[in-house]
Design a protein that fits this description.
With 115 residues, the protein is mainly beta. It has a single domain, classed as Beta Barrel (Thrombin, subunit H). 15% of the residues lie in helices and 51% in strands. It has two helices and six strands; from the N terminus they run αββββββα. A hairpin with a 2-residue loop joins β1 and β2. The longest helix is centred in the last third of the chain and has 13 residues.
């Protein structure tokens, strides 16, 4: 029996819509964040980033943008010129992990660190 997606994830995702920047090969691309957790995010883009690609999400968090290294986990077309994609954050230092938690709380999500 297939496991529910939410059960496979170690941390809950919080629906947070924001426009962010994704970096790939020193190029910047605007993306629309759909949800985020301590360990990954889902977004829409007019550009496809194939699975297994390394990228960086620039999390807009005052006073600086926080670069989060990520691996594209999946990508699927939504329609003409639009893709929904998921990334897994990789090797996040503790400081960046805490900033992701703060970002989630600031945008109205629950504190992922709370029980």
């Amino acid at each position: 029996m297939a496991q529910d997606k939410d059960e496979r994830r170690g941390f809950p995702r919080f629906p947070i819509e924001a426009t962010l920047v994704l970096e790939k090969n020193n190029q910047e691309y605007p993306i629309r964040l759909l949800d985020i957790s301590k360990t990954g995010a889902r977004f829409e883009s007019d550009r496809e980033f194939p699975p297994e690609n390394l990228v960086r999400l620039l999390l807009e968090y005052y006073p600086v943008d926080v670069p989060l290294r990520a691996l594209v986990a999946w990508s699927r077309p939504l329609g003409e010129g639009l893709f929904e994609q998921g990334v897994e954050f990789i090797n996040l230092p503790r400081a960046e992990s805490l900033l992701v938690q703060d970002f989630i709380v600031e945008k109205g999500g629950e504190d992922p660190a709370s029980p």
